[in-house]
Specification:
The chain is an all-alpha fold and 137 residues long. Helices cover 70% and strands 0% of the residues. The structure holds zinc ion.
Length: 137
């Protein structure tokens, strides 16, 4: 395998980042499973609780759904990022920004191995996202 333009990452750094990503991905998948089964359990509990009247129960279900769904969505997004980063390692373009193609800082990759964008693109992306949608919290 020829080393492409991975100038800032050496083989062992890449290896350890890859392992981190794999572990992270497994953890996220486990979290996702737990969250999904939690959600089902909570819904069952709500429908079994007789104290609550129907309107109250419906409100609780909606609330449980919303917090849990946004968490699930976030987990799915993170899993997608890990997966994508792993694919980029396989393809040999790990470490370069998905948008502008510039190298992503090594420190940034160490802190977040799943980072797909350089700092500049990431902050622009977040700015855009914050403007485009109402607060999710
Ligand atoms: Zn960029």
């Amino acid at each position: 395998m020829n080393t492409m333009k991975l100038c800032c990452l050496n083989g062992s750094q890449l290896k350890s980042l890859k392992r981190e990503l794999q572990i992270l991905q497994e953890q996220l998948q486990a979290d996702l499973k737990a969250e999904q089964s939690d959600q089902l359990q909570e819904l069952n509990q709500v429908s079994c609780t007789e104290v609550l009247d129907r309107v109250e129960a419906a409100a609780v279900v909606v609330e449980v759904n919303q917090t849990s769904l946004s968490h699930i969505k976030q987990l799915e997004e993170e899993i997608r990022e890990c997966h994508s980063a792993l694919q980029r390692i396989e393809a040999g373009h790990y470490g370069s920004c998905e948008k502008c193609g510039e190298e992503i800082e090594l420190n940034r990759l160490m802190a977040n191995p799943a980072a797909l964008l350089c700092v500049g693109c990431q902050s622009r992306d977040e700015l855009h996202r914050n403007r485009g949608s109402e607060s999710t919290f």
